[in-house]
Specification:
118 residues; four-stranded antiparallel β-sheet; 11 strands; 52% strand
Amino acid sequence: QVQFVESGGGLVQPGGSLRLSCAASGNLLLINAMGWYRQAPGKQRELVAFITRGGLTNYGDSVKGRFTISRDNAKTTVFLEMNSLKPEDTAVYYCYLSQTGYYSMDYGGEGTLVTVSS
């Protein structure tokens, strides 16, 4: 099993910034990728970003150029730097770990709420 500690969500004004963190623990023998999905009320879950074991990154089209994913040297904590936030970024952000690919949420966190509003 894998456990996550997510933090950094909250309320921010449009144009502002937030930094999410996700620390994974437990069975971490195989990590192909770690990243974030998000889900807004009434909408489908969408990929935000992931970082692969080799350090490659990928972003959803709606966040490219505004969000940056990174990780610590141990490769068990990922960070999501979110800039130029828009109201449409409001969602619950879920950290995930994939052992079988890059997009599959083999393990996921409880989620942290990000609200962008004036």
